[in-house]
Design goal:
Elements: H1 2-35, H2 45-56, E1 68-78, E2 94-104, E3 120-126, E4 132-138, H3 148-157, H4 169-178, H5 183-191, E5 203-204, E6 209-212, E7 218-227, H6 244-255, E8 258-266, E9 286-299, E10 319-321, H7 326-345, H8 351-357
Antiparallel strand pairs: 1-2, 1-9, 2-3, 3-4, 5-7, 6-7, 6-10, 7-8, 8-9
Helix pairs in contact: 2-3, 2-7
Enzyme class: oxidoreductase
EC number: 1.11.1.-
InterPro entries: Catalase, Catalase_core, Catalase_sf, Catalase_SrpA-type_pred
Length: 362
């Protein structure tokens, strides 16, 4: 009987290994599919960052988008009002340190400030419990497109003509005509002139997120920071000055800290959480969660924001991402860009001291 059992056991072994091998192959295939290896036309983070790099030019050691910027520091003073909607300790009454970065879009770190209406503000909140909240905001109230695929198509349409160094107007026009969801952004862009100061702009999360309260209930939310400083039209930069935004910020901070109010807008049932091109109605309830205070600035090449990847999906307990497809795409593209620029820095002049400053690889 034992002999027949041994024969049966040996007979089963090839099948067992075949099942294990099949499982391994399926897992590998899944990774290959996600990575785009089995489908050259599948959109991947690498292709998105390649397109950004092609449009902005290769500038080793710099971000592939929002390459031109300045580091800032300060804190967030929570008034405790938002604590009822989220258990994140950043919303409990008190102060949370912040490392941030003002920037303009594009991959060229030498671009003129007047070349675009868009300004950005990225923040990293370092919570007392060791967790972090990172957010990357822009000064327009809606995003251009709703999906990563449309964003990639826009990058392709905006590829500079080698002869002129500028995008082809007809090609961009065709893209916008094929994407009616861009209408809200275009309306904003046509009405807004490039601002003269980072300090007088509001900055929007664009994507939706969830706040999670003590009972586990989710609250769909978008946020923005609104400045106390106002643009009265008297601050007119020199047209020949390509770097007036950083200089204006230096002057303002020399006179005192700059402040913004963090406003959380709560969605109503039916408000889209998966489409950053659609604004929520203006009558939605808004909570003033506290005050963002920026009190210092440093050049980005050696400042504290240099090594921060402002991935908007890095959230503390009490906050979650929504079903917006742009969020995972942004996270993956930010990581690809981060790995490129940090690996390049090791080959740049002065790289010997850079390693000592690289305290964060997230």
């Amino acid at each position: 009987m034992s002999e027949s059992f041994e024969v049966a056991r040996r007979a089963r072994q090839p099948w067992r290994w075949a099942v294990i091998a099949a499982a391994v192959l399926l897992l590998a295939a899944a990774f290959a599919f996600v990575g785009g290896w089995l489908s050259p036309q599948r959109l991947t983070p690498h292709r998105i960052v390649d397109a950004l790099q092609e449009n902005g030019g290769l500038h080793p050691g710099y971000r592939r988008n929002h390459a031109k910027g300045v580091c800032v520091g300060g804190y967030f003073e929570s008034n405790g009002t938002a604590a009822v909607y989220s258990t994140a300790t950043v919303f409990a009454a008190g102060r949370t340190p912040v490392v941030g970065r003002f920037a303009i879009p594009g991959g060229n770190p030498y671009a003129p400030d007047s070349g675009t209406q868009v300004r950005s503000l990225a923040l990293r909140f370092s919570l007392a419990n060791g967790q972090q909240w990172r957010t990357a905001m822009n000064n327009m109230p809606v995003f251009v497109v709703a999906t990563p695929e449309a964003f990639y198509q826009m990058l392709q349409a905006g590829r500079p003509d080698p002869a002129t160094g500028k995008p082809d107007g007809a090609r961009m026009g065709a893209f916008f005509a094929a994407h009616p969801e861009t209408a809200a952004f275009l309306t904003w862009a046509k009405a807004v002139k490039p601002s003269a100061s980072f300090a007088t702009d509001s900055y929007y999360s664009l994507d939706a997120f969830y706040l999670v309260d003590a009972s586990g209930q989710r609250h769909a939310v978008r946020w923005r920071v609104v400045p106390e400083a106002r643009d009265d039209g008297s601050n007119v930069p020199d047209a020949s000055d390509n770097d007036y935004l950083a200089q204006d910020l230096q002057r303002r901070l020399a006179a005192g800290p700059q402040r913004w109010h963090l406003l959380l807008t709560l969605a109503a049932p039916g408000d889209p959480t998966n489409d950053a091109t659609k604004a929520w109605p203006a009558d939605r309830p808004t909570v003033d969660a506290g005050t963002l205070v920026i009190d210092s600035e440093q050049a980005q090449d050696g400042g504290p924001c240099r090594d921060v990847n402002y991935d908007p999906t890095i959230l503390p307990t009490g906050m979650r991402i929504s079903d917006d497809p742009l969020l995972p795409a942004r996270s993956a593209a930010y990581a690809d860009s981060y790995l490129r620029r940090t690996s390049e820095e090791g080959h740049l002049p002065g790289a010997a001291s850079a390693g000592a400053r690289r305290s964060e690889r997230k």
